[in-house]
């Protein structure tokens, strides 16, 4: 199966790509702003078997100007995606009163526009039965606990959850499923940077395996769902 995953340079995105490659049967295109992790993922693919390959596309997902490069890569390697996982994101921890327009635009560009543009670019290539999985957050899940300094991050993640519900209806006739997952705290570099010293109960590998298996299997049985992934009640 051909799979596109955004934000594969580290954290949950890297772990999700790793889980897909370790299956030994999938080709993965990883899209991110840097080539961090590329050699590791290519080595994982090599060890997994001849049917597992990892391809990298460097792109700023918050902008539209990578579409031509993506289309070229899909054509050159005869890549026909059936799963799209929108994982790329960014976090600024700052009091609401201190947020400026530049901060706001950055947060929404990386957490919302990145998925918006990638879905638009990949949609013409998706087959019937394909599955789009958007990674939101418990911070964007309605009724969940909220945290000081994360108001704009939570708002952007809520927007991607709402978009997922809307696109599930819009793509229904194309037989393309769209769901959103809302992870709670995962022990990533991004979490550590925002909350130094905090110990999350879930590792990136654990979350990556869950996301990959969900993307692989759940599009057949659910559509338009926003699913909290947390060890406690919202």
Structure write-up:
By secondary structure, the protein is of the alpha/beta class. The protein has one domain (2-229): 3-Layer(aba) Sandwich (Rossmann fold). The protein is 41% helix and 16% strand. It has helices at residues 11-22, 38-48, 67-76, 101-122, 151-170, 189-194, 204-217; strands at residues 2-6, 27-32, 53-58, 83-86, 131-135, 177-183, 226-229. A seven-stranded parallel sheet has the order 3-2-1-4-5-6-7, with helices on both faces.
Helix fraction, binned, reads 40-55%
CATH architecture designation = 3-Layer(aba) Sandwich
Query: What share of the residues does DSSP label as strand, in percent?
Result: 15-25%
Rounded mean pLDDT score:
93
Give the C-level CATH assignment: Alpha Beta
CATH H-tier superfamily:
NAD(P)-binding Rossmann-like Domain
Whole-number total of structural domains: 1
Instruction: Provide the structure class.
Output: alpha/beta
Shape: globular
Q: What spatial order of strands do you see in the largest sheet?
A: 3-2-1-4-5-6-7
The H/E string reads EHEHEHEHEHEHHE
